[in-house]
Amino acid sequence: MYFKIYYFIIVFLIFIYSLHSVSYEEAYAMEKEDPLFSIPLYEELVRTSQKSDIRKTASSRLFFFMRNIANTFPLF
User: Fold this and answer.
1) Domain residue ranges in the chain
2) Which segments cross the bilayer (predicted)?
């Protein structure tokens, strides 16, 4: 009885987590449309991704964006 309840809760939580997870493909597609809106998606990928190669790629994309933003908008 308790096993079924725990099993249902675990499956439900995994399902909810998969609905809100961001993929690299979504962030890359958003980058093509508007690069500034893809920055939060890449930041979430760096925080939540399980795979180290995706985290490395997302952090290099973030570094690229931050460097370009700093060159575009000089600080006074």
Assistant:
1) 22-76
2) 6-24
